[in-house]
Write a sequence for this structure.
């Protein structure tokens, strides 16, 4: 009888274990992140929007301003169908996405694709590989990104935590610039006259100018928070032509990410964020709700010789559980606390702030900065003059026009996309591969400029072998005026290994490079009257745009392209273009 009980208990145990396995194993399967495909529809159309006492029709995605938020996870695939209902040709760029082997989907007009014309459709199809954090998307033809932009939120793989405390709530905050005039007319007029374009009329936070502008008290961004909580603010600078300081009165922010790369956390009261850049910060609210409203402010950091929109956009931070929350609307005496921001041209603050941003550089998130270099480049970045076109009158000195250049080459936009010309071996008459690796002549770059400040023009590229390690020094010049230039490289992240004031010294400065924990990003400021050094690995075959993210400088020619050749292995080659790639 005893043995029978023993056998029966074994059977019961086996049944229980089998049931447990059936119950637990699916959970374990779910615990492993399975990438999915996410579909989005982008209808490009006009929408009437009222700001600053004026209603005008603006170009939008799905009638939204700012545009829709894309939410995805690391390793997911995005399939975004863009339908153009506008007269304007348009493309969409997915700013900061690596586009590994999907360069056809990168988006810059006449670089990786011809624009999507009226009535046409193009499907952007790409995978988020090895990236997580905040990026953004925007139009990448002419100045249409003034209103065509929105956030990309890339969450970590499922069940993978942040390398910092999990926030109570996450809030995207996207800065923009607003013109009362049509921005296409603004830049077209500037290109015809050869002088600087008209300035914007306001800055915006999530599309709202705030109460410091006319008719804008109701158009104010408001952030409601609970006391004793941690919020993650996903900051994006989508402004066309201005870098911005950012601060929240009486609150400290902890920087934890830049350009979708985790950073060593550091605390600050004031941030600097350039067009194209993103920064994630943790905001820890006060333990008890104060009887006050706190101003969220952004205003320009500007170093160039030209005038600029020197206004301030503000939002309001309110505590939900304030004892006066029910009477705030009636109580006009509630203290409104404002932050202190640096002077508009405080380059010392800019240099110090940027030097604080370092990669995590730990075992889980290593800084894979190239330790050796295969190709070295030295690029001067700055302004200049170019001849006025025939049968045209320009308002620059001696009938010239303002221009911008890299190594004195002002980029000329081709008539067909560079990537198509490269892929199908039809480069003749489209581009040349003789972009200079160094300036055509040496001078005191940050001192007295040379007498001749005329630039050359051409559609020139640099060709790189697959997997080459590249070191690039970007040197600002004082021609017309020293200025901070946020340089954006498509298709790659680079490591910012050094920066300095004055002229780069190739003998002394490399010894000070940070090869341990430099920040990894896609957009970095070339300091006003200074230099920045970056390194990257050319592991992504295709044609990759590099340009100043001050849109006026891009229009003037401060841009160029890198061609990265295919590698030898099958997985190191760019696939053929999609069948619906727009034609020129």
């Amino acid at each position: 009888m005893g043995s029978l009980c023993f056998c029966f208990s074994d059977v019961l145990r086996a049944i229980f274990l089998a049931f447990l396995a059936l119950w637990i194993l699916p959970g374990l399967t779910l615990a492993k992140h399975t990438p999915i495909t996410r579909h989005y529809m982008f209808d490009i159309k006009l929408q009437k929007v009222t700001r600053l006492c004026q209603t005008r029709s603006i170009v939008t995605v799905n009638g939204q301003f700012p545009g829709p938020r894309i939410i995805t996870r690391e390793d997911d695939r995005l399939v975004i169908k863009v339908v153009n209902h506008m007269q304007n040709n348009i493309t969409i760029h997915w700013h900061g996405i690596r586009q590994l082997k999907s360069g056809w989907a990168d988006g810059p007009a006449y670089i990786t694709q011809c624009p999507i014309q009226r009535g046409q459709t193009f499907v952007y199809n790409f995978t988020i590989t090895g990236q997580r954090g905040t990026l953004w998307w925007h139009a990448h033809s002419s100045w249409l990104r003034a209103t065509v932009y929105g956030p990309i939120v890339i969450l970590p793989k499922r069940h993978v935590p942040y390398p910092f405390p999990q926030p109570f709530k996450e809030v995207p905050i996207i800065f923009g610039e607003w013109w009362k005039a049509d921005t296409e007319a603004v830049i077209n007029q500037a290109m015809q006259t050869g002088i600087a374009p008209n300035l914007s009329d306001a800055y915006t936070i999530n599309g709202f100018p705030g109460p410091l502008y006319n008719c804008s008290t109701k158009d104010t961004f408001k952030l409601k928070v609970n006391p004793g909580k941690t919020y993650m603010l996903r900051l994006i600078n989508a402004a066309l032509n201005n870098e911005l300081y950012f601060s929240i009165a009486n609150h400290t922010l902890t920087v934890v990410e830049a350009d979708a790369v985790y950073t060593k956390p550091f605390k600050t009261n004031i941030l600097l964020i350039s067009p194209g850049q993103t920064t994630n910060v943790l905001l820890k609210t006060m333990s008890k709700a104060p009887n006050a409203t706190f101003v969220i402010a952004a205003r320009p950091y500007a170093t160039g010789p030209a005038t600029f929109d020197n206004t301030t956009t503000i939002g309001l931070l309110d505590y939900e559980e304030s004892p006066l929350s029910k009477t705030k609307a009636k109580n006009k005496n509630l203290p409104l606390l404002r932050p202190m921001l640096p002077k508009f041209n405080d380059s010392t603050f800019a240099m110090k702030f940027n030097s604080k941003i370092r990669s995590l550089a730990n075992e889980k998130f290593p800084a894979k900065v190239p330790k050796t270099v295969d190709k070295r480049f030295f690029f001067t970045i700055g302004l200049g003059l170019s001849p006025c076109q025939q049968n045209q009158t320009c308002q620059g000195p001696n009938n010239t026009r303002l221009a911008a250049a890299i190594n004195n080459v002002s980029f000329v936009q081709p008539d067909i996309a560079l990537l198509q010309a490269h892929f199908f071996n039809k480069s003749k008459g489209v581009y040349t591969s003789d972009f200079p690796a160094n300036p055509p002549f040496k001078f005191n770059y940050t001192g007295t400029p040379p007498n001749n400040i005329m630039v050359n023009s051409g559609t020139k590229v640099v060709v790189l072998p697959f997997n080459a390690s590249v070191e690039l020094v970007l040197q600002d010049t004082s021609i017309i005026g020293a200025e901070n230039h946020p340089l954006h490289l498509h298709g790659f992240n680079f490591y910012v290994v050094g920066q300095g004031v004055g002229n780069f010294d190739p003998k002394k400065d490399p010894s000070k490079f940070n090869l341990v924990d430099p920040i990894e990003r896609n957009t970095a400021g070339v300091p006003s009257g200074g230099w920045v050094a970056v390194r990257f690995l050319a592991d992504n075959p295709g044609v990759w745009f590099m340009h100043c993210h001050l849109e006026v400088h891009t229009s003037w020619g401060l841009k160029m392209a890198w061609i990265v050749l295919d590698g030898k292995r099958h997985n190191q080659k760019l696939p053929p273009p999609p069948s619906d790639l727009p034609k020129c």
